[in-house]
Amino acid sequence: EAGVTQSPTHLIKTRGQQATLRCSPISGHTSVYWYQQALGLGLQFLLWYDEGEERNRGNFPPRFSGRQFPNYSSELNVNALELEDSALYLCASSRGATNEKLFFGSGTQLSVL
Amino acid sequence: GQQVMQIPQYQHVQEGEDFTTYCNSSTTLSNIQWYKQRPGGHPVFLIQLVKSGEVKKQKRLTFQFGEAKKNSSLHITATQTTDVGTYFCAGPGWGNKLVFGAGTILRVKS
């Protein structure tokens, strides 16, 4: 069974640009979560999608947005990049029910110069 | 909002010594999950505790859920170099999001 896949692995952008990160969940999983992990810090919740709908978002500005496609894959868009957006962005999937364990992808390392 | 606090932030132990990380929530939790992230890796699910006072073991790892369901601990007996990494606890927050503690970084000296 394939795990959660994320692309690209690394992404280098300059301040003010836009970044798009992609995630494919485990087959059969309908929920996708995005977390930001800045260097040496914990996981900060960004967004949760389930069945194509945004269900919850964390305390991040509106320039962080995303969507979930009919095949349950998801993308995270970050507009007007700032230096402090540099972080590892982790996607996780679950079966969608509450209290389900999360399966994480390997992440996209975003560097903003 | 709900907060999950974890201590210590960092622990460096000699191989063979025991290790414990503690997790405290500002609210009562329906369940608590533990994850491990190896250096350079991604978080991997270890276990979920649901019942008040629950204790679960996985080989040298012992997980406990407090009676009030507001705290939890992970204890590793006789650490090995393979135990290095960051251990996170996580509890369900408002709207089904999983709120993670800041993690405890474990380093093991051989």
Structural class of chain A: mainly beta
The helix/strand order of chain B is EEEEEEEEEEE
Number of helices of chain B: 0
Q: Secondary-structure element order of chain A, as H and E?
A: EEEEEEEEEEE
Largest sheet of chain A: 7 strands, mixed
Low-confidence stretches of chain B: none
Distance between the termini of chain B: 41 Å
Cα Rg of chain B = 13 Å
Chain pair with largest interface? A-B, 21 and 24 residues
Shape of chain A: globular
Residues in β-strands, percent of chain A: over 45%
Shape of chain B: globular
User: What number is the mean pLDDT of chain A?
Assistant: 94
Radius of gyration of chain A: 13 Å
- Range of helix content of chain A: under 10%
> Biggest sheet of chain B, in brief?
6 strands, mixed
So what's the oligomer here?
heterodimer
Give the number of helices of chain A: 0
**Proportion of residues in extended strands of chain B:** over 45%
What's the pLDDT, averaged over the residues of chain B?
A: 95
How many DSSP E strands of chain B?
Answer: 11
Write a brief caption for the model.
Chain A is mainly beta and 113 residues long.
Explain what this protein looks like in three dimensions.
The complex is a heterodimer of chains A (113) and B (110). Chain A has no helices and 11 strands. In chain A, strands 2, 4, 5, 6, 9, 10 and 11 form a 7-stranded mixed sheet that branches. The model of chain A has no long low-confidence stretch (mean pLDDT 94). Chain B has no helices and 11 strands. In chain B, the strands form 2 sheets. In chain B, strands 2, 4, 5, 9, 10 and 11 form a 6-stranded mixed sheet that branches. A 5-stranded antiparallel sheet of chain B has the order 1-3-8-7-6, with no helix packed on it.
Main features:
heterodimer, A: 113 residues, mainly beta, 7-stranded mixed sheet, 4-stranded antiparallel sheet, 0% helix, 50% strand, globular, B: 110 residues, 6-stranded mixed sheet, 5-stranded antiparallel sheet, 11 strands, 55% strand
